[in-house]
Every structure is written in structure tokens, then in C-alpha cells.
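Record passed on here:
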Amino acid sequence: MVRSLWTAATGMAAQQVNLDVIANNLANVNTTGYKTEVNGFKSLLYQTIQTRTTTANGENKPIGSQVGLGVRNASVTSVFKTGSMLASESDSSFAVNGKGFFAVRGEDGNPYYTRAGDFQWTTAANGGNMLADSDGRPVMASNGNPIILNQNYVVSQVSVTGDGQLVYPDANNNPQSLGIQIGLFQFRNPAGLEKQGDNLFQQTAASGQPINEAANNEVEKSVILQGYLEGSNVQVADEMVSMIVTQRAYELNSKAITASDEMLQQANNLRR
């Protein structure tokens, strides 16, 4: 009975983490580029009460007796399903239709990857116009350098093609390429990316090296949509159902603890 107390306690702890994941999904239902997270469970060790043996008559008993010791949280995995495309009035807003990620350079100089394309033009250190995210991190071009235009360009007239090429109208108002392409990067295993907050992901050994779409013709190319933002892919109805299931599982584990306590109390009263 003491074993059942600890087993039910692990269930309550695991369901609490599951509720935390669901609450985080609901909190980010309007966050640009947010990806739904799914909690995974894993059973704990099993205690062997009786091994495979034979009966007193010598007959085989191929099935042993093992009792599980509870559950734990195994993983919290992001689901990289494309969210809804939401129209934006900003010319520096971009959405990715496909598997690609934008890349930004962090303060530590390392690249970070995001699906949130709510960018803006800001003043660069050399006085030019630099494309950056909402926190001022420079957006990286396909060649790995920050996207910086000199002050002669009117940034409101800069447009971006589907493959990420920056174009600017000439004297005849015909769009001409500026020779700069917004970088898009894919991963063999995006679920292996490490979440950093602020809609940023960092590559890991599990995710593999980033694949530059501009330099690799073996991957399916993504499409950049200017004037759009990718919304969160959280499905509120699914999260509410998951919340109800989680709450009921938590209640069942708490009732198991109550039942174990009552059984222990009755066993203690036998000596009276």
C-alpha cells in the first residue's frame, strides 16, 4: 500500500507538468510563430514480485509478476505544423510557408532560428538600415551576414520575392534585385531544436546542422510571404480537451492516494 502512495504521487506530479505545458500553449495562442508543445510520458521501473518459474507440480509459469512504480515526464516536444497566415500592415512582416526558419544573430554572436517574422528596419552601427527582429537582433541573409542597406534606399519601397530576394524599383519603377536574399534554413529533425524563449530555437546535435535552402537543391524550398505573419498553431479546442483529461487523471491519482490512506488506516485499526 505504501507503494501505491508513491506511484499515485508520481502520477499527480506528471499531470501537473502536463497541465503546465497546456497552460503555456494557451498563453501563447496569439504569439507569432509559436509552435504547440506536447508532453510525453514514460513509465518508471517495474518491481518484480515473482519471476517466471514452475508450479509445485512442475508445470511452467512463463509469465512473471511485476508491478509498475509510476510515471514520469519523458519529453516536451514542439509540433512544427504551419500556423495560419495573418495579414499585417507592416512591409517588414514576413511569414514562411514551408519548413524553413529565419535566422537571427544573438548578442553572443551565435545564430538562432525562428518562425516569427515580425521584423523591422532599424539603424545599423555603420549608419545604414538593418533588418532586425523586435529585440534588435539582426536578421541574417543566406550568406550568413546581416541584412544592411545604405541610407540611399527608402526602406518602405523595398519588397521581397517569394524566394527571399530583396528588390528595389529603378528609375522606371521596375523592381531590381539588390543581390541580398533573406536566409531560410531547415533541419533534418526540427523537434531536436533547443527552445531559448523569445520564439528562438538553437541547433543541437539532435536537430543536426542547419540546411541553407539557397545553397541546397535537395530540400523543398519554402516561400516567404511579405505583409503576413505566421500565427500560433495552437488549437484551443484540443487544448481544452487535453486540460479536462489531465484534470481527471490528476483527480484519479489523488483518489488512489486517499484509498491507500484509508486502507493503511484500517490495517492500523486491526490491532485495536
Summary: The CA atoms of residues 87 and 216 lie 30 Å apart. The radius of gyration is 27 Å.
